Fold:
Amino acid sequence: MENLHDKRKIYAKSQLIESEIKQNPLEQFRDWFLEASEDPAVSEANAMAISTVEEDGCPRTRMVLLKAYTHEGFIFYTNYDSKKGKAIERSHKACLHFFWPSLERQIIIKAELEKVAENLSDGYFHSRPKGSQLGAVASPQSQVVPDRAFLEEKLKQLEKEYEGTEVPRPADWGGYLAKPYEIEFWQGRPNRLHDRIVYQLEGYDWEISRLAP
Structure:
């Protein structure tokens, strides 16, 4: 057994105090996201974990890429028949998580999810490289396949089928809009007295509270 008791660091890069934060969490997210995007130590600022609950009651977490954020919420794309898609269909809820270690920051977002309009899914699908489009068609996401060769052979078939022509977006592939009802901003601080500011949607207004670390 490896002892990890002494694996720790000191957090002292920034602070998060009520007098300096935005009153709307989407605006606060925008500010932090832009800082993360400009930080050379952050390779993919839009990489986020998304957690859903399986049928057995156990959460499942995986990484996806945020593709847009608006005044309404956060947009990402996936296969609707995947494990995450089926979990979202059951509960219409998910938790999103951003972690930017170099900034000593994380954001936890609890949200209600809904599918985006089909024209938005069409537009994003056809903006992707053709290889990515074909990969989305070739992969029955989350289903058991015999081996890697099965997927590669399927991709080769599709490359021939759609050579010189547009790839239609699969009906089971598209976007979700995650509409937040709770967003927590976490800023690392010395002595483990981290800053935790949480916004909770009450009707049409956001209530702001500080949580003990």
